[in-house]
Design goal:
Two copies of one chain form a homodimer. The first copy, chain A, is of the alpha+beta class and 224 residues long. Chain A has one domain: 3-Layer(aba) Sandwich (NADH Oxidase), CATH 3.40.109. Chain A has seven helices and seven strands. Chain A has a four-stranded antiparallel sheet, sandwiched between helices. In chain A, helix 3 runs antiparallel to helix 6. The first copy, chain A, is globular. The mean pLDDT of chain A is 96. At the A-B interface, strand 1, helix 1, helix 2, strand 2 and helix 3 of A face strand 1, helix 1, helix 2, strand 2 and helix 3 of B.
Chain lengths: 224, 224
């Protein structure tokens, strides 16, 4: 290793910069219904994708791809897949929750100007990947880190992101022509927003409460 | 739904705040050897855990727990598990890569003042979880979002994070007494840093190059 390629002084953050990072983290929302119709500028979309591309990845595998969906036809097909799955989903909840479940908007597929499918190519970098030898799911997790990078960058850009998870994998593969060696990680709806819930929508709508952080912290080992 | 619980004007970011979020994203590193011995203040550690706790989670499930490891004994046991697995891992690479592989430091378990295991309790919130009905892995992905939140907040705090993935799941479960219904998502090494690589260490050390972003973007469907 040459001297030139070694560590260098770490980039420092001012208190204001640090606070901005927390501001993005605490004000990020899973957006379903607040998307505005205005298009996303290509330069902004590229910044979001650069943010995703700078996620950590196991063995520097960078296993992600980004499928940008703009056409009404594709969105309609995805929305139909969502609707089928969501009918099945609703029936799984106890009777007393079905009315509330049905009242929740759980996707913004047609309302958001951009939909984005983020995938993980399990074969990228060959069979043996540094860091994935003993925990094979690490490449999936790397791709999720890319989703979260994009989500936080979007918040700072005034853009909302909603993660749709109610669809059958087979339907989404068919619609987007995704090959077998590629895993679908996230289907995101993306668009400008000027209003958001002040906390998680499922909390605000009475579906479930935030857990106290202290209850989730253990010392040295699991304490159950 | 009462008026009071509806959307409110979205928090806005100044250009400087937006740039700070990108600064964290682009300067985040997977740290292995740059940890300083100084302890992490409890208030700072709590801020990092609050950041993790504000990740998105499917059905607002908040499936994560945080096991804070401080003792030399636990770290030594985890390090032994890493060493066993890493010997096995090294043997899997072609001869011409083994010398480089062996030269890479792939963990900072004993050097980092804090180790943190982040887990996913698959049973939290009951059997049927909103948004997880059709894609059961969504709770695992929520927990990865918590990891990435913590990682970016840490960067802004001047704290480095390294994700160790080379261990057998059975070893880690035994050492940390993790029950069967809980999945181990990440084992992190955490400590202050004043030097970092200027890019991903595996890139700087010649293991693998960054892929051009343009090659990873598709329009409307998979283009293989």
């Amino acid at each position: 290793m040459s001297e030139a390629s070694g560590p260098v002084p770490a980039v420092r953050f001012t208190p204001e910069e640090r606070d901005a990072v927390y501001k993005a983290i605490f004000n990020r929302r899973d957006v379903r219904d607040q998307f505005l119709p205005q298009p996303i500028e290509e330069a902004v979309l590229l910044r979001l994708l650069e943010a995703a591309h700078h996620a950590p990845s196991v063995g520097f595998m960078q296993p992600w791809n980004f499928i940008i969906i703009r056409s009404d036809e594709t969105k309609a097909a995805v929305h139909a897949a969502f609707t089928r799955a969501n009918e099945e989903a609703k029936a799984l909840f106890p009777d007393e929750r079905q009315a509330l479940y049905a009242s929740l908007k759980l996707e913004g597929i047609r309302k958001a100007p951009i939909n984005l499918c983020i995938t993980c190519d399990r074969t990228r970098g060959g069979e043996v990947v540094l860091g994935r030898t003993h925990n094979r799911q690490m490449d999936l997790y790397s791709t999720v880190c890319a989703v979260q990078n994009l989500w936080l960058a979007a918040r700072a850009e005034g853009i909302g992101v909603g993660w749709v998870s109610i669809y059958s994998d087979a339907d989404m593969r068919r619609i987007l022509a995704i090959p077998d060696h590629v895993e679908i990680i996230a289907y995101l709806c993306i668009g400008h927003v000027d209003e958001l819930y002040s906390g998680p929508e499922l909390e605000k709508r009475g579906w479930r409460e935030r857990l106290p952080l202290g209850d989730l912290i253990f010392e040295e080992s699991w304490q159950g």
